Amino acid sequence: MKELLTIAIDGPAGAGKSTIAKRLAKEYEIVYVDTGAMYRSVALYMLEHQIDLDKEKAVVDALNHVDIRIVYKDEVQHIYLNEEDVTQKIRQQSVGEGASKVSAYLPVRKKMVMMQQEMAKKTSMVMDGRDIGTHVLTDAKVKIFLSADVMIRAKRRYNELLEKGESADLNAIAEEISERDYRDMNRDHAPLVQAKDAQLLDTSNMSIDDVVCAIKKIIEMR
């Protein structure tokens, strides 16, 4: 039986995790699992059902009504929330902010982690998030921690929004990213931190091709 290749990519918002993970998945012909999309789906459910994201008990009580599936169509990942394709919906900025809140609740993380670990037992994959190498896939063959300057990460998000035709405030985005960083790094359970056996890559002055090339060299050495 062919040995499974598991790649864990962690890092703060805007560091390029998803973009890099997708490229690696395509080049190695393995599955890409966007864990952030799973938390965003939970947040979307809560927002659409007017559940206060700051009230842990209310969020946890509603969790039993959340069913998430990842389906691949034409090599593109689609996220289904209770049988509705929410791939585009979950990319709203308010949903991203909500995801950071619900992901701090232990019962939410336990449910998502259980789903992610089950996926990893069955197929080679690259998974990105904030606690993949330290908590979800602790035995991953390759662990990468991506980082970048806050303003550079904010500028990337700012450009994404402009390209979609949406209005954006660079300073507001930078402030929101900084707040998310603080929440993610200071939450009680599985905070954002570089795994001891993860390779750090600062993408501030690196192109996507540069980062992919660097990670491929790491994979080949492992």
Record keyword descriptors for this entry.
Rossmann fold; 222 residues; three-stranded antiparallel β-sheet; 49% helix; alpha/beta; globular; 8 strands
Unreliable runs: none
Strand order of the largest sheet: 2-6-1-7-8
In the CATH scheme, the class would be Alpha Beta
Give a short account of the largest sheet: 5 strands, parallel
How many helices does DSSP assign?
9
What's the CATH topology label? Rossmann fold
- How many separate domains? 1
What is the radius of gyration computed over CA atoms, rounded to a whole number of angstroms? Answer: 17 Å
What do these coordinates show?
By secondary structure, the chain is an alpha/beta fold. The chain has one domain: P-loop containing nucleotide triphosphate hydrolases (Rossmann fold, 3-Layer(aba) Sandwich), CATH 3.40.50.300. It is 49% helix and 17% strand. The protein is built from 9 helices and 8 strands. The protein has helices at 17-28, 35-48, 56-62, 93-102, 106-120, 132-136, 150-163, 170-186, 208-221; strands spanning 6-10, 31-34, 68-73, 76-81, 84-85, 125-129, 142-147, 199-202. The strands form 2 sheets. It has a 5-stranded parallel sheet with strand order 2-6-1-7-8. Strands 3-4-5 form a 3-stranded antiparallel sheet, covered by helices on one side. Strand 3 and strand 4 (76-81) form a beta hairpin. The chain starts with 5 loop residues before the first strand and ends with a helix. The model has no long low-confidence stretch (mean pLDDT 91).
